[in-house]
Amino acid sequence: MAMSTPLTQQAVSPVYLLVGGLVAVLLYLFIQSKRAGLDHIPGPWLAKYTNAWRGFQAWRLNHHNEAVNNYQINMIGRYGDVVRIGPKHVLVYDPEAIDTIFGFRERLDKASTLPGPQGPGYQVFVMTGTDQTALVSIKDEKTHGIYRRPIAHAYSLSSLKGYEPYIDETIEKLIKELDKHDADGTPINMTRWLQYWAFDVMSKISFGEPLGFLDHGYDFNGMIQAQRENFRYISVANNFPLLDTLTKRNPLLKWVTKKPSMFFTFARRVVSERLAQASSKDPQDAEFEAQSRRHQDLLGSFIAARKAYPLMTDLRITHLTATNVLAGANNSARAMDATIHWLVEHPEAQERLHAEIRSVNMAAMKQTDTEGPAALELALKMPYLDAVIHESYRQFGAPANNLERVAGPSGLTLPNGGVHLPPGTVVAMNAASMAMLPHIFGKDARAFNPERWLQQPGESEEEFHNRKIRMHRSMLVFGHGSRSCIGKNIVQLELYKIWATLLRIYKFEPAQVKLHQVMTIPRRREQKTEKSVEI
């Protein structure tokens, strides 16, 4: 008969298993933290051991309306310009380090803890239900160049002229809505309507047809709300990639997440229709070729690129056009919301912009102030408008997510102090925080003040030039270097045209003004024909 022992007579207590597992996890986190070789970098204690600290901070910023730049600027005061925010993650606040991290000389790859092309937090940009990744999530420079090359021309300055008619059409729709409120004197929620405009114009430029928000006057299919929730999720998962791995990318939960998004479904339908049209035509037909060249939306350019670039598959084209709307509409809507909020609170700025717009129009030999959308070539000649748009970028156009790179095999030495980061360190900058540095943007850096982009009284040309260069270099709204945002020119085209048009036609009177909920009463201005006035 076998002898029994106390150990075999009763099962191991679940408490012991739990404690043992917890000790093993803590030991693993401690070892990983030490192996990173970043003990010389100050930062929050918990961040040394887990990315959950970063994820929690992102969640807190989402749910408590605390500006990300205020929160991170406070970290600078506590820890300095180089802060450890994760076991292998370091956040840098020094503008002198921008070229070191994002420059062309030593092109650092985006960080990666995953197999394949996507980076760590960047995996969240892979569209659910597909294996397609956005340009932003491609980790290495070579692969990024291969994927960017077929589409770069479609986003170039030379292509902008072809997109103006699409923007003009959507501006005219918005004008009709504003005229209704001018006629009956009722307030309009400009935050929402500018968001509807941003989605429709990006869809028009991308697909040749709008999503329909301006026609319906509300989020009729839930796309905007879904996108808002998606960006909140991205802000957390980008900082805590394990969350994405355990949820959206979890093979066990694919039955929950396998359904493509509404954006992808819409894009797939439009792309399929256009591809069917293209395949029914003879490519050698001169008339068809000329027609294709005249089709100036992004989808037309992507389809045309298939002949020279086999990687431009149907699925790739669908993904590109869908993510173009997702990425482009959100940032431009935020920047426009900041602008209208500030303009309604500062009627004197509206008057100054109106005078500048009229002056430029008259100087361009226009006999009357037309009510049609402004031409880009004229909008770009307005220095105060340029200052207002740059300030709106600075305040609310920057993404809250960190821009990450990974230190190469020899590590990375930062300027101004020579802090050395070991190989494999994920080094990052935050565009929203960099745009709030007082020693770059002034003591009032947290305030919306377009005057900072103009020459100050008593400031020499050289001083102004150097100050403006420093500000521009510290603006990472569209990224920096070879990985800068490919859609930057299109976003600028939209913003310059819409404000040069609306502020010529309307004066926006306050009704209920708070950020992200700006209610105004648009009043049509009398369209005068007198000659230009000095500003």
TrEMBL record:
CDD domains, per the entry: CYP57A1-like
One Pfam family, short name: p450
Coiled-coil annotated residue ranges, if any: none
UniProt GO molecular function: heme binding; iron ion binding; monooxygenase activity; oxidoreductase activity, acting on paired donors, with incorporation or reduction of molecular oxygen
UniProt entry keywords in alphabetical sequence: Heme, Iron, Membrane, Metal-binding, Monooxygenase, Oxidoreductase, Transmembrane, Transmembrane helix
Transmembrane segments: 12-31
Binding site for heme: 485
Cofactor(s) annotated in UniProt: heme
Family of this protein: Belongs to the cytochrome P450 family.
Protein name: Uncharacterized protein
Organism: Fonsecaea multimorphosa CBS 102226
